[in-house]
């Protein structure tokens, strides 16, 4: 579904991505793991057209989207939930969700139906539908950011560190929901995480990124039982 080939991305003279190739097949959850500054967010931004690579290509559903506009990429069903759960603080939960459907010019009833689906998946959001998004807890804002992305009917959902800054119990809740989105909605997922432990519980495969290079590609099971990964990312000493 997604094929990234030889991607190189620079910020001025700094090369953040140094020739990355990766694939995500339909129906998969693929984890992209790596430490701070490894280049994970840069890869997602390059895939979604927010920044341009100097070399390499991105194809989605067999179509080359390397130079496609970011909004056109969204319309194709490739949806990026950026780092840091950016919700519209001064709008309500429901209004935030309505905005997520803006690229789909369908009937209002369709939007209402999709909001009901999101509320089904996130009962906490349903309880707080009239609340200003800025007053939600961190975990609830992350749920809203994911819910808003679902309103755009993603074929491929790219999530940038959904567990960041959240209490372990909320991380478990968010990860369960991500698994549900994959299994029930048949949405393919590229999951960027520093929390390898949480990510590898639900991902089918994973890539390890180190300073702009992919250094490993394995099944989640193989990564979980790899001593180097355990030491570097799974909190063993
Ligand atoms: N706008 C920018 N201008 C210059 N350098 C940047 C910019 N954004 C990122 N970088 C640099 O590119 C490298 C990769 O950053 P990136 O945000 O992709 O890392 P990351 O793996 O997502 O890290 P984190 O886990 O902390 O989010 C870092 O060295 C970073 O300082
Ligand atoms: Mg990042």
Automatic annotation (TrEMBL):
One of its GO terms (molecular function) is ATP binding. The keyword ATP-binding applies. InterPro entries: AAA+_ATPase, ABC_branched_ATPase_LivF/BraG, ABC_transporter-like_ATP-bd, ABC_transporter-like_CS, BCAA_Transport_ATP-bd_LivF, P-loop_NTPase. Residues 2-236 form the ABC transporter domain. Keywords: Amino-acid transport, ATP-binding, Nucleotide-binding, Transport. It comes from the Bacteria. Signal peptide: none annotated. Pfam families: ABC_tran. The keyword Cell division does not apply. This is ATP-binding cassette domain-containing protein. Gene3D superfamilies: P-loop containing nucleotide triphosphate hydrolases. Belongs to the ABC transporter superfamily.
């Amino acid at each position: 579904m997604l094929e990234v080939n030889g991607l190189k991305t620079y910020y001025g003279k700094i090369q953040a991505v140094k020739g990355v190739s990766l694939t995500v097949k339909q129906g998969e959850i693929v984890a992209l793991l790596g430490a701070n500054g490894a280049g994970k967010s840069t890869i997602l931004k390059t895939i979604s057209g927010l920044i341009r690579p100097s070399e390499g290509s991105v194809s989605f559903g067999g179509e080359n989207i390397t130079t496609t506009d970011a909004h056109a990429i969204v319309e194709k069903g490739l949806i990026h939930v950026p780092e840091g759960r950016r919700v519209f603080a001064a709008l309500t939960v429901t209004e935030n969700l309505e905005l997520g459907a803006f690229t789909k010019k369908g009937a209002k009833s369709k939007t209402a139906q999709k909001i009901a689906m999101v509320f089904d998946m996130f009962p906490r959001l349903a309880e707080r539908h009239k609340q200003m998004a800025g007053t939600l807890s961190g975990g609830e804002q992350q749920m809203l950011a994911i819910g808003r992305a679902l309103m755009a009917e993603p074929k491929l959902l790219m999530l940038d560190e959904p567990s960041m800054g959240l209490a372990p119990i909320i991380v478990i809740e968010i990860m369960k929901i991500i698994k549900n989105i994959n299994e029930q909605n048949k949405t393919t997922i590229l999951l960027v995480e520093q929390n390898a432990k949480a990510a590898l519980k639900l991902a089918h495969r994973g890539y390890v990124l180190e300073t702009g290079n992919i250094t490993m590609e394995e099944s989640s099971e193989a990564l979980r039982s790899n001593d180097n990964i355990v030491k570097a990312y799974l909190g063993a000493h």
